[in-house]
Design goal:
GO terms for molecular function: helicase activity. This protein is α/β, with parallel strands linked by helices. 35% of the residues lie in helices and 20% in strands. It folds into 5 domains: 174 residues, Rossmann fold; 169 residues, 3-Layer(aba) Sandwich (Rossmann fold); 164 residues, no CATH class; 138 residues, no CATH class; 82 residues, no CATH class. The protein has an 8-stranded mixed beta sheet with strand order 4-3-5-2-6-7-1-8, sandwiched between helices. Strand 3 and strand 4 form a beta hairpin. The longest helix has 19 residues. The model has no long low-confidence stretch (mean pLDDT 89).
């Protein structure tokens, strides 16, 4: 490829404006279309700026493929090799020298550098490229850089570059915006009449064949969601008159290079790529884009703590990025393999990764930075608190954070290993256990695609055995390219741990021990009945595919798990695991006293358990039951089953009704306690707890006297005032003490024989004379004959109608013509009357 001519890059047209903005402002936003030369031209032009003063430029790229490619293009622009003025650093690989002034790095590299050197000595400008992708590491880098600018380096410049841009971004950053025009050629976009059915790789392959016939010039770029689909399409296109090349992140460098540059023999190319080809990378000569419309990404579920890979439709902005690839060097055509109607329904853009991702790496980075509370940094979008909580819980399990969220010594050691904290923990502690070589193999395989495929069963030890057999030059049915990448990664981990390779057959229990280090919440015990069903320490259910050889293992350490319910079972599917020696669970076991109410038997179950999370290893009855635990369990049962579990005797009901009546009659007197069902249920532990000693069953609960428990809620002098205002009995003219029945706010009922009230003119009252009682006047047989709250009116009118009936039915009882003057009586007529 000939050297790039910088003057041909459209982005250079805005160079004067950009220079002026960077001279005046520490943070600048640049927007320019894809292919304008933002990444491959502007950094070279900024090297001589006075404010840079001989310092270096660090430019972030979101992917390794792009970092290498951009560095190569920049070096070509100077007519140099990579590693001279322009170099790059990616994980486990760097090409820099003492002469290097521009370093193109992946995002994690900058974070490591900031952790070791917060002032970024010798760096004058940091460029955040392709910022529209809003990757988690880009957001973190920006937040850390803004803090560095504010506290340590007011001379440090940050340039945020993007092809597409949220219009609000410059204002949110309080930064000037420099906009550049591109020289993109027109791209004709074609849709299908209807959304296709079948596999996306077959649909893409058919579309490529048809487009090759319709477009005799130019190379093709086809987008597929993942490596499996790329290989399927590659096989389907094996006979076409063009060279078919894959392009994805884990592809060896030489093969990546073949996809990015023109074919040496001048043949047409069909590049089958994942979403890494949407931005950053320039594929010379592409005139036709075939977009399968799908993308594969990870989704993290904070509820389960699990991440799963999902395939989903692209967003509209991603589709625009993909289509734009056809118009970089000449007019082009983009085939979208979906209908125009469907396109209008696609999401406009993906939300920032920080809102969806597993935040364990970010949370550990922040703790290492000295900011365990993310709210202390200036974020574009702050990390969601529920996800931070899940991340902190995991990091505490890994002993990377203390209870206050501060980083521990082990956490600092894990940060030095460029991988997820889970795998860093596996490597760190695996080496300490003398399993360094095995830890390197296991970590490499967990980061890579499965070399054996799902049909080979779920046992991770089989994958380790396959990798070691491949190292011994033994060949099987494995995917050689995957094993090559896994070995390359394992070699890098062995170098970091300073251990030699081990090619002996692996100990399956040792593999399980290592997996348990990375996934402590996914150690699992076989459920009753077996059948490959397991309970994870985190509380989730999971199962192996039917017939999997691991199904006979009593304990597993699970590495890869799909959190989605499998076949409607409500359990996730285990994809990769290893058998676990039960002794590992014994080492981790803690002890807890469990007290719970068994609703089926109506009894308290109290036992001391040895457990690992939700896994109970053994249990024995707990005889000395802590009173607080008893109260908590019984209170929970009452709330769950209802207040009918309590011993509501007439005396208890009466006490509650009297207090509730006064609360309604006298709302101005706020000292009366609320004894309604909701209030009593809310405060069970306070008023009932002291009276639950010895309670272990429903029968015991029914023997608890509620009267003293409720009475204790009445502070002095309310008990005496209760008796005064809402007495339990009233004395009638015969001297009888008759019980009052209260109804929580209505008038209390006095059921009394009519004859005992002869001569009484006024209706008895309670509540300090405010509330007349409701009289249920009874016959000599105790049956109601009249209900009234106006006794005087009754004697003057209704009594005489009642008298006619009662005198005939009860002739031996007095029924005077003048009830006002007749003596009250309890029984029959006295002799002589």
């Amino acid at each position: 490829m000939p050297p790039v001519t910088l003057s041909d890059l459209p982005a250079l047209e805005v160079l004067p404006e950009l220079r002026a903005a960077l001279a005046r402002h520490p943070l600048v936003v640049l927007q320019a279309p894809p292919g304008a030369g933002k990444s491959t031209g502007l950094p070279l032009e900024l090297l001589s700026e006075p404010w840079l003063a001989g310092q270096t430029i660090v430019m972030l790229q979101p992917r390794r493929v792009a970092a290498r490619a951009v560095a190569a293009r920049l070096a070509e622009g100077l007519g140099e090799e990579v590693g001279e003025t322009v170099g790059y650093r990616v994980r486990f690989e760097s090409r820099v020298s003492s002469r290097t002034r521009i370093e193109v790095v992946t995002e994690g590299i900058l974070t490591r550098r900031l952790q070791h050197d917060p002032e970024l000595h010798g760096v004058g400008l940091v460029i955040l490229d392709e910022f529209h992708e809003r990757s988690l590491n880009a957001d973190l880098a920006l937040a850390l850089l803004r803090e560095v600018q504010g506290a340590l380096r007011d001379d440090l410049r940050v340039l945020v570059m993007s092809a597409t841009l949220d219009p609000a971004l410059p204002g949110r950053l309080d930064a000037p915006l420099v906009q550049g025009a591109g020289r993109a050629y027109p791209v004709e976009v074609r849709y299908l009449n209807a959304d296709p059915a079948g596999r996306v790789e077959d649909t893409v392959a058919r579309a490529v064949r048809e487009a090759l016939a319709a477009h005799p010039e130019g190379d093709f770029l086809a987008f597929l969601p993942g490596v499996r689909e790329i290989r399927g399409a590659q096989a389907a296109l094996a006979d076409i008159d063009a060279v078919v090349l894959p392009l994805y992140g884990d592809l060896p460098l030489a093969e990546q290079r073949r996809a990015l540059v023109p074919d040496p023999a001048g043949r047409r190319k069909v590049v089958l790529a994942t979403s890494i080809a949407e931005t950053s990378l320039t594929l010379a000569g592409v005139r036709v884009v075939v977009d399968g419309g799908l993308s594969r990404t990870q989704r993290f579920d904070p509820g389960t703590g699990l991440t799963r890979m999902v395939t989903e439709r692209v967003t509209r902005d991603a589709a625009e990025q993909r289509a734009g690839r056809a118009g970089r060097t000449a007019p082009g055509t983009a085939y979208r393999l979906w209908s125009e109607r469907t396109h209008a329904l696609l999401p406009a853009a993906r939300p920032p990764e920080i809102q969806e991702a597993d935040l364990a790496p970010l949370t550990l980075e922040l703790a290492g930075w000295g900011a365990p509370d993310p709210r202390t940094l200036a974020w574009l979008d702050p990390p969601p608190e529920p996800r931070v909580t899940v991340a902190r819980s995991l990091l505490r399990d890994l002993d990377a954070l203390d209870d206050a969220g501060r980083i521990t010594g082990r956490g600092a050691a894990l940060l030095e290993l460029p991988t997820h904290p889970r795998l860093a923990h596996l490597l760190h502690d695996g080496a300490a256990l003398g399993l360094g070589a095995l830890a390197a193999d296991v970590a490499a395989l967990l980061e890579e695609r499965d070399p054996l495929g799902s049909g080979a069963g779920a046992d991770l030890a089989d994958r380790v055995a396959a990798l070691r057999a491949w190292r011994r030059r033994e060949r099987g049915g494995e995917e050689v390219a995957v094993l090559e990448r896994a070995e390359r990664l394992s070699r890098q981990w062995r170098a970091a741990l300073r251990v030699r390779p081990d090619d002996t057959p692996p100990d399956a229990f040792a593999v399980g021990r290592l997996v348990a280090l990375a996934y402590p919440e996914r150690v699992a015990l076989s459920r009753e009945g077996g059948g490959g069903r397991y309970l994870l320490a985190g509380g989730q259910g999971a199962r192996l595919p039917e017939g999997d050889p691991l199904a006979g293992s009593p304990a597993l350490a699970v590495a890869h798990l799909d959190a989605v319910s499998w076949k409607g079972t409500g359990e996730g599917r285990i994809h990769l695991a290893a058998p676990l020696d039960p002794a590992v669970l014994d080492e981790r076991a803690g002890t807890r006293d469990l007290v719970r109410w068994d609703a089926r038997t109506g009894t308290l179950v109290a036992q001391r358990e040895r457990h690992v999370g939700a896994l109970v290893l053994d249990a024995r009855p707990l005889r000395d039951l802590p009173h607080g635990a008893r109260v908590e369990a019984v209170a929970g049962a009452i709330r769950s089953e209802g207040p009918h579990l309590l011993n509501w005797t007439p005396e208890a009901e009466a006490l509650r009704a009297r207090v509730e009546s006064l609360r309604r009659w006298r709302p101005e007197e706020t000292e009366w306690p609320d004894l309604s069902d909701p209030a009593l249920l809310d405060t069970l532990e306070d008023w009932l707890g002291p009276h639950l000693e010895g309670v272990r069953s429903r029968e015991d609960l029914k023997r608890v006297n509620l009267v003293p428990a409720l009475g204790a809620l009445l502070p002095w002098p309310l008990p005496a005032r209760l008796d005064e205002l809402a007495p339990t009995h009233l004395t009638v003219p015969t001297g009888s003490r008759i019980r009052l029945t209260y109804h929580q706010g209505g008038p209390p009922v006095l059921a009394v024989k009519l004859q005992e009230l002869f001569g009484l003119a006024e209706t008895p009252t309670v509540n300090g004379g405010r509330t007349p009682v409701l009289l249920h006047l009874l016959s000599p047989a105790g049956r109601p004959v009249q209900v009234t709250q106006d006794l005087r009116s009754f004697w003057n009118s209704s009594y005489f109608e009642v008298r006619k009936d009662l005198r005939g039915r009860y002739p031996r009882h007095p029924w005077p013509d003048d009830p006002w003057t007749h003596a009250p009586m309890r029984g029959t007529k006295r002799r002589g009357e």
